[in-house]
Specification:
Largest sheet: 9 strands, antiparallel
Strand content: over 45%
Structural class: mainly beta
CATH architecture of the largest domain: Sandwich
CATH class of the largest domain: Mainly Beta
Number of helices: 1
Length: 431
């Protein structure tokens, strides 16, 4: 049974809410959290998450392909990956890696002609994905490589293909010439209904160049804001929600990655705090999470899951007065984080705050830099994007941020449920 099923069975309060899921911000096509399948390269003995083509230790092949399903962090749960060699005498590899604190796919070539990488989503079953419902307007990816490190340059030609309904697929093209963030506007695909996308593919064609290496950083995603060409920067992820909460004992049900407070099956717990370190996907590798019940007769939870490939953190309440959820980054050690390329904190909310009666939740963001601490409060009243501009925090040096705290105060309302979609970010631009 999943966590929802077990809690429903263990308690008269079924508090893991079925939220609407109508909006999803910065939707990930692929977070790269799910690695490529393991295989052993010729001449080696240790399996690794890698595809390869060309020639290696007497083995040779023109193409390698992996069709994976049931994947976490991938839209539709399935990814088809194809690696093709330009010349069988070379060696081309694609590996699941980590780089710059992000999940990554790394493409590497020997000294001869390179090849092509094709990533497909919805190849076997239509995605039926709404990529525009949250206001997204473009695909976005970040690349770091040696395309411009030497003469002649080694550009990689990217073709993105999108299909929806029975309409013919549409393709858009970009040339990846240097490190950075690339955005492919939805407007480049005339006739595609981005509210119902069935198929997406990205074809990275390096067949016309030699000895090129590059890494795709942090996944393939959508963005709500188009930045000037050539100067786009990536959002800074404070928490991708990819690292689960620690295990907690659920009375009568066993242990699960969940925080809870209140009363369950005769066990009373006023609050629950988890201080975690060495986390991948959280800024500084650390996160402190705390839930507090306003009424001990209630039962509130914080859990992590995903919706169609996008991670989320969900807060759920029983029928009486709710409580608070606090997320702190930098509680264990100063972050010393440079957030200055960004302009605002960003998150997306999906819940029942605007149901009848309304259940508003004040959010207070506190930022500490050195000896300076500043707070800003916004009231969350409905689903959608939330931006807290850096200008709300006077005298904070965003080049050296030591701590960031987000306090969701639902202590004055009853029976409120909400999910934070896609993580907490410092946004590079605001629509």
């Amino acid at each position: 049974m999943n966590t929802r099923t077990i809690l429903c069975a263990a308690s008269s309060l079924c508090v893991i809410a079925s939220l609407s899921g109508s909006a999803r911000a910065e939707r990930f096509i692929d977070t790269f959290a799910a690695p490529l399948p393991q295989q052993v390269l010729p001449g080696t003995s240790s399996p690794a998450p890698v595809l390869w083509t060309g020639t290696e230790n007497g083995g040779a092949r023109w193409q390698d392909h992996a069709s994976q399903s049931g994947l976490s962090g991938v839209i539709g749960g399935a990814r088809d990956t194809t690696l093709m060699a330009s010349t069988v005498g070379n060696l081309v590899t694609l590996s699941s890696t980590q780089a710059s604190g992000k999940r990554a796919l790394s493409y590497a070539t020997g000294y001869g002609g390179s090849g092509r990488l094709l990533l497909e989503y919805g190849a076997d079953r239509d995605l039926n994905a709404n990529l525009s419902g949250d206001g997204s307007v473009a695909f976005e990816l970040e690349i770091a490589g040696d395309m411009d490190d030497a003469l002649p340059h080694r550009p990689v030609a990217l073709t993105v293909t999108v299909a929806s309904g029975g309409a013919p697929p549409r393709a858009a093209h970009a040339t990846l010439t240097e490190d950075g963030v690339y955005q492919i506007p939805f407007a480049s695909f005339p006739g595609v209904n981005f509210a119902d996308v069935d198929y997406v593919s990205l074809d990275f064609d390096a067949s016309q160049v030699s000895a090129v290496d590059y890494t795709l950083l942090g996944g393939i995603r959508t963005t709500r804001c188009i930045q000037p060409s050539g100067s786009a920067v990536a959002d800074i992820v404070l928490d991708a929600f990819s690292a689960p909460l620690p295990l907690r004992a659920i009375p009568g049900a066993g242990q699960f990655p969940i925080l809870w407070a209140g009363t369950l099956n005769g066990t009373v717990k006023p609050s629950d705090t988890a201080s975690q370190s060495s986390l991948f996907g959280a800024i500084g590798g650390q996160r402190e999470t705390r839930v507090v019940a306003s009424s001990l007769s209630n039962f509130i939870t914080a859990t992590m899951s995903e919706a169609n490939g996008t991670p989320e953190l969900s807060y759920a309440t029983g029928t009486t007065t709710s409580g608070t959820l606090r997320l702190t980054y930098g509680a264990q050690a100063p972050l010393n984080a440079d957030l200055s390329p960004a302009v605002a904190f960003e998150l997306e909310l999906d819940g029942d705050l605007d149901s009848s009666p309304p259940r508003p939740v004040p959010l207070t963001v506190t930022v500490v830099s050195g000896l300076t601490s500043r707070s800003a409060t916004v009231t969350l009243v409905n689903d959608g994007m939330v931006y807290v501009p850096f200008s709300r925090f006077p005298q904070i040096d965003f080049r050296d941020v030591d701590r960031v705290t987000l306090l969701f105060n639902a202590s004055q309302v009853e029976a409120v449920d909400f999910s934070l979609i896609g993580g907490v970010r410092a946004a590079a631009c605001v629509p």
